[in-house]
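Record pair follows.
FIRST:
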Amino acid sequence: MDLMRPHFGNLHHVTIDSWFTSPKLLHDLRDRGVFGTGTVITSRKGMPVSFKTTRLPKGDMIVKSQGPLMAVLYSDRRQVTLLSTTGSSRMMRKANTKGKIVKAPGVVHKYNETMGGVDLGDQLLTQYEPQFRSLKLWKKILFSFLMMAAVNAYICYKSSFVIQKKMDHLQFQKEIIKGLLGNFREGRSRRGRLGVLRCARLSAKHFIDWIPEKKRMKCAVCSGKRGNFAGTRIRTWCPDCSVGLCVGNCFRKFHTLINYEE
């Protein structure tokens, strides 16, 4: 009511989200010269009791009125309940945002035509919302902010001047992911014991040496194999790769073969 106060008496029309819509609110707005339409929760105070339990087949609807206020329960892909002090419950055919002709009550068409950025933003957010479970609230808030930023970027992109054909929402999300990944580097080796990149292991020059302080290590190549020497600790290593290696065959395999453990 405070937000609409400057518009009282101007016969404006406001479209309201289900979080705020109630019979009392629309009556109060109507009494002050403001029309309204909005989706509403069926359990909201003043709503018809039958709307809470009624299940309609697709395409059917129930209409009830209270003075200038009209309540519509309509079933399409799911049941939706609307309140309006303007509009019509008569079935009408109109083109949706994709150009497809859709048959629905006039009040539904009016809501779809006049709903603002909040509902449209929520629709875009839920299209590719990451599905994950976490008990930590900060993670949910963080992902919500990231998705909101991606949606805002897509809206700005859609309204920008681009010569070539614009990407749809899915393509735009994929491009964001590719941009975030960038020129990623290769991960660690299969066993997770070597902290070196494969390209450096195979391309750089390496020299075998004694392990400092007379310490011993397992050979990175032969320690995992079955045999008499499995698990034997050795005195030699490659200081550049920081791994233990036997002199000769193991050292050569480690620095020349991609799958040196086979």
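SECOND:
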Amino acid sequence: MAVEAQNGGAQNGCSKVVKFLALKPQLSVEAPKANDAVQFYKAAFGAEEVSRAMHPKRKADQELPLVLAAELKLGPSSIIVSDIADESSPPVKNGCVICLETEDVEAAVAKAVKAGAVSEGEEVAEGDGACCGERVNKLKDPYGFVWLICSPAKKSADVES
């Protein structure tokens, strides 16, 4: 699904339509845990590894190779997982919540918990439908990222376009 954005053209005199083909969030984890994170996302969410690039400066025998970017396919979407390679810069402090939609919320939560995620609630909660569907459960993965596992949102005639 392509997403279109229109440039207002005020600054450069151009009103070209830009089509985005995908949104691929990058999850940066404390080095050298990216490989473990990839394995977790495969086990917890059934992710499929599409590609992997190793950090070019970490090829010496005495250094543990770091993941520059591992692309994982999750349903029709993708995420990128990487090690934080530069020890001098602090990790990003902004929050990120990732929402995964599924028809079987309970089974998805059970699978993720079995793989090492922690459920943030004892029972699957009924959502308000604002950003997720009727059923929502919040998980935290072993790398500190928050995931919402939710049912697809129901289409409503009351939603304005």
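COMMENT: The chain has a mean pLDDT of 78.
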